[in-house]
Amino acid sequence: MNNIPTQIRNKFIDKLKQQGISNISVLNAMGLIPRHIFVEAALKNRAYDDDALPIGFNQTISSPYIVGKMTQLIIESDNMEKVLEIGTGCGYQTAILASLFKQVITIERIKPLYEKSKLLLKNIGFKNIKNIYGDGYEGFTNSAPFDAIIMTAAPKEIPEKLVKQLKPNGRMIIPLDENGSQKLFRIKNTKNGILKKEVDDVLFVPMLKGIVK
Q: Domain range spanning residue 73?
């Protein structure tokens, strides 16, 4: 793995801490996974800036803060083994999750991104990631139920099929596009129904149905 230079890493982690990322496991993972190998060559000098960056196909790699925030929100003190990620993209968020969960199933609907991220994650050495080329709205029933689901694109409503793939007390981190304004929500699947908590204002690419070849 192409390590992050120490000075850059220290500055990167300090910035995340200032922004409220406090979970030690998340900070350690983000300090180890080199974000620069997931961005386009022309943008490598911006890899550790707190910005979302284009990765092609009208998709982006989320800002480090958003990756840290969403990952921190999804981790709880109970036994967290299996997570479903909707929207692999370049694979950076996937790599962070794979550093923290025993098993990561990640779905990408755009075939060239699926192929590129699958190869990159394999070359890094992760053996606990299952890459799926498919429609994120369908989830992946073969591996359900999941302890957690994290979504990196914004639907207009909570996909019911995904909620059904959560374990009891499982949680979902999801950006929702409600009336043209996106909010990040943390959802918990309780015996009394879905608990929905608004977390932050966000800006994600829209979640689309189907696959792209």
A: 6-201
